[in-house]
Design brief:
It is built from 14 helices and 13 strands. The protein is of the alpha/beta class and 371 residues long. It folds into two domains: 206 residues, Glycogen Phosphorylase B (Rossmann fold, 3-Layer(aba) Sandwich), CATH 3.40.50.2000; 158 residues, Glycogen Phosphorylase B (Rossmann fold, 3-Layer(aba) Sandwich). The strands form two sheets. Strands 3-2-1-4-5-6-7 form a seven-stranded parallel β-sheet, with helices on both faces. It has a six-stranded parallel β-sheet with strand order 10-9-8-11-12-13, sandwiched between helices. Strand 6, helix 6 and strand 7 form a beta-alpha-beta unit. The chain starts with a strand and ends with a helix.
Length: 371
């Protein structure tokens, strides 16, 4: 099976695309990965080259959530249709919405990882301003055109239904990671947080606010610079020990030694970094939001993401109670083992086969009518 898949290099979609590609190898699936957005880093190129069932096709077209993107989105669509015609895949897997409305020759699956309207509601408590109506129209159109819509959590699927209307063929397939790639070492006395530090949804500033009042140091990994905006000096870097933007292999080593992973997120449709931290034996302190409650249940300590005092209290409790900390670490690790890349690939492969079978059935029915 050959899959034409889109991805970008900015955040979790890149991790997801490579993890899924790797896990699909036993199913004899070849992934033709069309990259848009900022250029690949050296470590991302190395990670991609390590996958024998992956072929990369690079571009620098703006993504559909970037300002002034629509000319690029149109050109990217033309490029994608050209790739489909040239590469002759069996199926198109889109990790975005706008391009689902193109005149594809093959079945299309849209993976809805996040969206501007649900982000804005969660982070700003309001609807986006008028200039985002074009984006909303494109997302609505793409969701209606897709043959199947997949989200990484039921909370994200409800968000899409709320903001863009219900979709006919939709399901939840949780993201996953390979547990063998994450190890727990002798835990040390520090708190770790990681992610896109320019993204208000991650709410890492909240961790920085209390860092100076904790007996343990707070270490933070991630990039400050928005891919479409100039860099800015960060409050986080002043209050915490900033590790920089780390390649995946280096970040895994910090997970391995961290005792607590803190991410009081305002918005996180699934959350790869908590999963990676849990697989590495960290106790989790997470934002008390619907999606993270859904994923982690009683395997994390939840805190109001807008309450710095509550966050400080929870972190001090875990720092001072080793037994409780180890109990939460064990719970998080056990729960994380339910979200493996093998399970993710099994579910996606079943979805792919279902779409292809539907196409065959539709062709048979059309032939019967003609006869």
């Amino acid at each position: 099976m050959r899959i034409l898949m889109t991805a970008d290099t900015v955040g979790g979609v890149w991790t997801y695309a490579l993890e899924l590609t790797r896990a699909l190898q036993p199913y004899d699936v070849e992934v033709l990965l069309a990259i848009m957005g900022p250029s690949l880093s050296a470590s991302q190129c190395d990670d991609a080259r390590s996958l024998p069932n992956l072929s990369l096709f690079k571009s620098n077209y703006k993504l559909e959530w970037m300002p002034g993107c629509w000319h690029d989105v149109k050109r990217a669509g033309e490029w994608l249709l050209h790739l489909e015609n040239r590469l002759q895949p069996d199926l198109v897997h889109l990790n975005g919405y706008a391009h689902a409305n193109l005149p594809w020759q093959n079945p299309t699956i849209v993976a809805g990882h996040s969206c501007i309207f649900s982000w804005w509601q969660a982070v700003r408590g309001d609807t986006p301003p008028a200039e985002w109506q074009r984006y909303k129209h494109e997302v609505e159109s793409g969701l209606r055109a897709a043959d199947m819509v997949v989200t990484p959590s039921a909370a994200m699927l409800r968000a899409l239904d709320t903001h863009y209307g219900p979709t006919d063929n939709a399901r939840v397939i949780h993201n996953g990671r390979n547990p063998e790639h994450f190890k727990s070492r002798s835990k040390r006395s520090f708190i770790l947080s990681a992610g896109r530090l320019w993204d208000e949804a991650k709410n890492v500033d909240r961790v920085a606010e209390v860092a100076g009042e904790l007996p343990w140091p707070v270490l933070v990994a991630g990039e400050f610079q928005h891919p479409d905006q100039p860099a800015r000096h960060s409050f986080v870097a002043r209050q915490c020990r900033w590790l920089g933007s780390l390649p995946e292999a280096q970040l895994r080593r910090w997970y391995a030694f961290a005792s607590i992973y803190a991410l009081p997120a305002l918005y996180e449709p699934f959350g790869y970094t908590p999963l990676e931290a849990a697989l590495s034996g960290c106790a989790l302190v997470l934002g008390d939001i619907e999606s993270l409650r859904e994923i982690w249940g009683n395997a994390a300590v939840f805190v109001d993401p807008n309450d710095s005092k509550a966050l400080k209290h929870v972190l001090l409790e875990l720092i001072g109670d080793r037994k409780r900390r180890e109990q939460m670490s064990q719970r998080a690790h056990a729960r994380a083992l339910e979200f493996t890349s093998a399970r993710m690939a099994e579910n996606y492969f079943a979805a792919y086969e279902e779409l292809l079978a539907t196409r065959v059935l539709a062709g048979q029915e059309e032939f019967a009518q003609c006869v």
